[in-house]
Amino acid sequence: MWRITSLALLVAALALPPSAAAAPALVPVGTFSSPMYVTAPRTDTTRLFVVERAGRIRVVRDGTPLATPFLDIAADVATDGERGLLSMTFAGDYEQSGLFYVYMVARDPAGELQVREYRRSDTSSDLAAPTGRIVWRQAHDEADNHNGGQIAWGPDGLLWFATGDGGGQNDEFGHARDVSSHLGKVLRIDPRPGNAGTYSVPNVSPPNPLGTAVYAYGLRNPFRFSFDRATGDLLIGDVGQGLREEINWARAVDGRGLGADYGWACREGTVPGPGNCEPSGAYLGPVWDYNQGSPRAVAGGYVVRDSGLPTLEGRYVYADTYAGVVRSLRLAQPRGVDDRPAGLPQRDLIVSFGEDACGRLYVVSLTGSVERVQDGAVGPCRLQPAGPPLPPQTPPAPPATPRPPDRSSPQVRIRVARKGRVGRRATPRIVLVANENCRVTISARLAGTRLKRVRTPLRGGRRTVVRLRPKAGAIRRIRRALRKRKRVTMVVAVTAFDAAGNRGFVQRRLKVRRG
Length: 515
Description:
Elements: E1 25-31, E2 35-39, E3 47-52, E4 56-61, E5 64-65, E6 71-72, E7 85-90, H1 94-97, E8 99-105, E9 113-119, E10 133-138, E11 151-153, E12 159-162, E13 186-189, E14 213-217, E15 224-227, E16 234-238, E17 244-250, E18 260-261, E19 267-268, E20 271-272, E21 288-291, E22 298-303, E23 316-320, E24 326-330, E25 337-341, E26 350-355, E27 361-365, E28 369-374, E29 412-416, E30 421-422, E31 429-434, E32 438-446, E33 449-450, E34 454-458, E35 463-467, H2 475-484, E36 488-498, E37 503-514
Parallel strand pairs: 14-18, 30-37
Antiparallel strand pairs: 1-28, 2-3, 3-4, 4-5, 4-6, 7-8, 8-9, 9-10, 11-12, 12-13, 13-14, 15-16, 16-17, 17-21, 19-20, 22-23, 23-24, 24-25, 26-27, 27-28, 29-31, 31-35, 32-33, 32-34, 32-36, 36-37
């Protein structure tokens, strides 16, 4: 995500100074305390809401920031590492219900990710009632980074939000592709009382045992995503580790993204990732990725639908937090095309973009500024069409009959991939298929040398390809053994644990050859 531990200021510059006749500019809205996000209710053309990291939401009414916060939950919000109050969204019927939602990292329990519901005050549209309720929560105490951060009311009338993979490096906790975990995912729920935590969207796979619908998995830290106001398409900016920053495009018109595996940690953008595995058959590669310097962190933006921005109309606008240059991209499959600077002044620590009710575009810098992107005069207001009504309220389910405890061990089948051929890098591949969702540890020995141990989640009934890499200095030894004999025996041992803690173990002797 935005690597807040490195707050070195960047040099201000213009990337490509465009002509004055068609030059978008940044118009100041106000200066705030570590702003993280900006948005507005669907039909409110007079107010803008600015989310501050420490736990406050500020109102800008008719261009003037108000002194009294709309909501102040700073006492509940953790701000160490990459934590904080990270974004907010308004219910599709906010004008009537007054309901809005925040995505935050809690102080207690430490590091817990929470989605909370609050309500507008009955006495003032500039104030919120101080108490709310938690509609979703997820433990996140293994590391303080990769919290995700975006929440949005979707065009389908459901509440969407994105989570990071749990932090650390190399998806070390195994959450991103584990469909029984809520981490490293794009999720959606019906947050109404009685439905939150139990509502599942039909025809979406993989199903989640906790009831929340998993729209996409295999993500590292999808800090910012957005919906195209014109098409409903979903654009996800997923922060990379050491190689690539990526933008993913799930098109609403053909359902791309439903249950899709975005590849982490098997892939990092368009290159192999550190996970020693292959993505699933539902793998959906990025529409755009770019080389990562140090430091880098993509801040996903919006497809511009503001008639007052003719130079950017229809283009996807994004930035890198540390490069500080706003860029625009013409979306196309299989790869985005015509990526270029947007011609705006450079800004330090860009953490977000935002839209108001009219579809006008804003840039948010963690150093304090919120600015509107504008070509000359402000364009006419384009209110977003109303979305579909919420699905019918789900009646309470009858009490379930208690199930006997699961005491069956997970079973894993092993075979060699690529007909046992081993290439010049001495990296054999194996295929694993488990009878249920589980996590496995793979140990292997080839030509008298141990291969690197691999830990990865398996999805029940799905084929997973794993690459077994030799330790340093062993490549020559393995290649020499393969040259001497037509086939060499490799011993593979797999230890598996399912969600109930049951342990399974299997060991096989497999034949490999030069290939």
